[in-house]
Amino acid sequence: MTIIVYSKPACVQCTATTRALGAKGLEYQVVDLTQDDEAFSRVEEMGYQQVPVVVAGESHWAGFRPDLIGQLA
Questions:
Q1: Beta pairing partners, 30
Q2: Burial 18-42 (b: 16+ CB within 10 A, else e)
Q3: What is the DSSP secondary structure assignment for residue 12, as one 8-state letter?
Q4: What secondary structure letter does DSSP report for 49?
Q5: How far is the C-alpha of 51 from the C-alpha of 68, rounded, in Å?
Q6: I need a labelling partner for 73 at 20 to 30 A (CA). Which of 10, 21, 59, 65 fits?
Q7: Considering the entire predicted model, what is its pTM?
């Protein structure tokens, strides 16, 4: 399963999310929305207005969600 974390610089919840993913031994890719206009549009089309946005296979959510990260492990 591919895990993508859409993020912005200096985002506390983004850092918490990537740390939690790493602590569970999960591999992930970080996409900086300030550097990738296509990714920014994709996240907006999904209906999200806050970061991080995590896309894990068919699942996706916004914000720091340790409960959902735990389900991925």
A1: 5
A2: bebbeeeeeebeebbbeeeeebbeb
A3: H
A4: -
A5: 15
A6: 10
A7: 0.94
**Closest C-alpha among 52, 61, 62, 59 to residue 19:** 52
| Residue listed under structure tokens 């946005």 | 53
Q: Which amino acid is at 5?
A: V
Cross-strand bridge partners of residue 70? none
Separation CA 46–CA 15 (nearest Å): 22
Per-residue pLDDT reduced to its tens digit, 34-63? 999 999 999 999 999 999 999 999 999 999
Quickly count: other Cβ atoms within 10 Å of residue 54's Cβ: 25
